[in-house]
Design a protein that fits this description.
This protein has 217 residues and is mostly helical. The protein is built from 8 helices and no strands. The chain has one domain. The chain is globular, with a radius of gyration of 19 Å.
Length: 217
């Protein structure tokens, strides 16, 4: 009997881990502003810089996973209370980064990924993902569709760990794929990539700010 119960518990834990991984991967996979920034970081500084940037995004996803684990009502009330502030901060930050990327002068020279630069990339991506309106909306939608019911603390921790793992799987795949083709990118192509990324990222920010303005009027 104890062996059977142990098997059931392990199966339940794996289920929560798998669900968390699905949520984390599903939120991270769409290539939006965050994905473009990770791609640009990988091209500019190599695999490690891109991966650390992805880790910052994955950590932010994990934070939302913690809110999800607290319960749907909690996450809805929390996000609604701070939605306008998050959209404003995220929109302005995206517009700033878009302009910065557009006018930046890229270089094909290998840049050393110092601890300071890695930390800066991690913090930037963490706060950008945390304030990204798309992340907020996606997490609420995915959680509602999955109808996950947490009954204890251990299940919540397992789910949150799954969210982090799922997100990291995507960022590792993305950064490693980009790093393979990094050496084949010319200076002119890199310039075009920066300009396109800048325009797209700025557009995401402007769209968020327009949405916020329309919702307040």
């Amino acid at each position: 009997m104890s062996f059977f119960m142990r098997g059931v518990m392990i199966g339940a834990k794996k289920s929560f881990l798998a669900r968390g991984m699905i949520v984390g991967f599903s939120i991270a996979a769409p290539v939006g502003a965050i994905g473009l920034l990770c791609i640009e970081q990988t091209i500019a500084g190599g695999f490690m810089l891109g991966l650390v940037s992805g880790l910052g995004a994955a950590t932010a996803d994990m934070c939302y996973g913690i809110l999800v684990a607290l319960g749907l009502k909690t996450i809805q009330s929390t996000l609604l209370a701070y939605r306008s502030i998050l959209m404003l901060c995220g929109g302005i930050f995206l517009c700033y980064l878009g302009i910065k990327k557009f006018f930046s002068i890229p270089s094909l020279k290998k840049v050393d990924s110092t601890n300071t630069r890695l930390l800066s990339a991690y913090i930037t991506m963490f706060f950008l993902t945390l304030t990204n309106p798309a992340t907020i909306i996606d997490f609420t939608a995915v959680f509602t569709l999955m109808k996950i019911d947490f009954s204890d603390y251990i299940q919540s921790l397992i789910f949150v760990a799954g969210v982090l793992i799922g997100s990291l799987v995507w960022w590792t795949f993305l950064c490693s794929s980009v790093a393979v083709f990094r050496e084949k990118v010319s200076a002119q192509a890199l310039r075009y990539i920066n300009q396109i990324a800048g325009i797209v990222i700025f557009s995401f920010g402007a769209y968020s700010l327009i949405q916020l303005y329309c919702s307040c009027n």
